[in-house]
């Protein structure tokens, strides 16, 4: 009985040891599996961290770019605002000028009429150099003033231009053909004017010469002593001979 009990105890102990070894092996395997899972999870987590880091770097770079563009746009907007303000000042100035145009016209138009009247009176009292041409210019100015298609600025330009032409008559040496009314006789002549200092006329056959007396408002016959000089003066004005000293009848300045 005692041997049987011992054998039975031994068998039971052996089974117990075998069961313990099997349990320990299963646990170890489970640990390896869990450790593998942990490694895999850690690797996945690290990959996610790397991806998030890269994304954060890209977002940071985009943020810096947006900040730089914002600063540039702010500077540009300030510049454009300055230009707009300057343009607005120009627009305001033009508007003020436009608003005052009617007032300017009310002052300029009567002035131009007075200038034309004064020019006509001056021509009537002046030495009759190219008289028909000058009178025709005054008539054209009056026509322009009555033409609604001509702007006020263009009218004023033509009036000023007429005054400039009149000024040139006093500085030029000219010769031109025309007709002279002497004692009721119409004579074809070559006119010669030395500015407004002297106005002479030479018959086309070069046998007679006249001088304009602006005080008496008549033509006076020149003596034979001035005939040759008058012929030379006409030829000089037409650039047929070189300029030279001449003996001409010049009224002394008062």
UniProtKB/TrEMBL annotation:
Keywords, in A-Z order: Coiled coil, Signal
InterPro entries: UCP028069 (IPR016866)
Signal peptide stretch: 1-25
Pfam families per UniProt: DUF3450
Coiled-coil annotated residue ranges, if any: 42-73
Record protein name field: Energy transducer TonB
Species per Swiss-Prot/TrEMBL record: Paraglaciecola hydrolytica
High-level lineage: Bacteria, Pseudomonadati, Pseudomonadota, Gammaproteobacteria, Alteromonadales
